[in-house]
Amino acid sequence: MSTRSAILSGFIVAKFVLQYFLILPDYDLHRDEYLHLDQANHLAWGYLSVPPVTSWIALFISGLGRSDLLVRFFPALFGALTILVVWKTVETLKGGLFACVLAATCILFSVLLRLNQLFQPNSLDVLGWTTLYYVAINYIQSTDKRWLYAFAVVFAVGFLNKYNLVFLLIGFIPALLLTPQRALLANRHVYLALLVGLLLISPNLIWQYQNDFPVFHHMKLLAKTQLVNVNRADFLKEQVLFFISSLIVIVAGLYGLLFYKPFQAYRSFFFAFVFTLATFTFLRAKGYYAIGIYPIYVAFGAVFLSVIIQTRWLKVALLVVPLLLFIPIYRVAFPNKTPQEIARNAERYQKLGLLRWEDGKDHELPQDFADMLGWRELAAKVDAAYVRLGDPKTTLVLCDNYGQAGAINYYSKQHINAVTFNADYINWFELDKKYRHLIRVKESAGRATEINETGPLFATAYVADSITNPLARERGTTIFVFQQANVDINSRLAKEIAEERW
């Protein structure tokens, strides 16, 4: 093995080690992960908020035993592959070993360490952005038509993972038209590759059509309930913070794209950066939507800096800075301390605003960390109530949110199909069963009146248990049991499902 390959392998190993080291076993999976894992039980060419690729990976995880370690492997793998693609991009741009090491160091000690902890479409999305840019660089450099078809395939996989990848094209196509590289588009293989890409994503487009384009409904709802509250200045501030340790390298890459002669053929990448970031800013996108933009510019910057900086101590400084800036981030940005330890040292987190939740109040843990607690406890207690009822074929487990339903289905030993009127679960009710009993999982905010409101519909009603973990966001979530319905549960469910759908 060559020195270069050995160093690259070291970065890959370091990536996996860090991803597992930075999260303690005290934490369960995050609430969002359970929804994606449950999609493996309801395979389709699309879902209300995401395309199907994550469900395929979830199916693979399910086949291998569904351990938390395995779930965390895949985002770590996508992060490691992102480092590999950036390394290969540096080599394509004729960068030496120092440039490769600098780029890999910047990617390793970046926001991707947090992003790559969660089983969501985001990790593969960033890999998709980076790989598409890499393919585009190779096509510009070689004009080999095979890169066009590679672009189509990578785009299709990325699109079927997360629709966010469309914004790469929104920024990159007009950028190409602004530069002499627009001549590259005068090639029939560009349009044949476009046709290949459309054919590959067509099953999802057909699914969208058949289901009245839920992606547009989701985007409209997102814009109304969340994106409207996004401050554009905060969005831009987050962009700086995401890659704060490699900011110098990214800026150097953008400068090099304008003024460094060997990068002249890639000048469209500068305008693509501007157009894409401007589009996200205009649309009030969430900050993390834009993370995929940056790794390729780290590659450009590393190559440019390796040429203009010849002093050894400056090169060492460039390599050390990402590590030094990572140290304070390490102390607060990861679930690498027990929940109790974080609660005891809350002042450190509070000063940085990390304890502020969506409700505008400060709590004992960061919201993301609190969203990783209490799920095993919930599943075990629902299992116990389910077994006591002794009638699984006619028992419905109805939850308040997708986190509850997904966690119960993931951890349950009783093969429960918990549902909710929230997210994709609205389509996963089994109305062919004749329900007689109900286990109602109720958030703490609405538990006080549940017995009075639902109890009269059943012969027996009682509280079975609740989540007692004091630091879980779901603390106080209560498990109600209702036996022997005196109404037609199925008809009521069908009516409410119809009302909840758009």
Brief synopsis:
59% of the residues lie in helices and 6% in strands.
Task: Please give a structural write-up.
- The protein has 502 residues and is mainly alpha-helical.
- The protein has helices spanning 3-21, 31-38, 53-63, 68-92, 97-108, 112-115, 121-142, 145-159, 166-177, 188-210, 214-225, 232-242, 247-259, 268-282, 295-308, 312-332, 339-344, 346-351, 367-370, 375-389, 402-411, 450-454, 489-500, and strands at residues 395-399, 419-420, 437-442, 458-466, 478-485.
- The chain has a five-stranded mixed β-sheet.
- Helix 4 packs antiparallel against helix 5 (97-108).
- The longest helix has 25 residues, at 68-92.
- The radius of gyration is 25 Å and the shape is globular.
- The protein starts with a helix and ends with a helix.
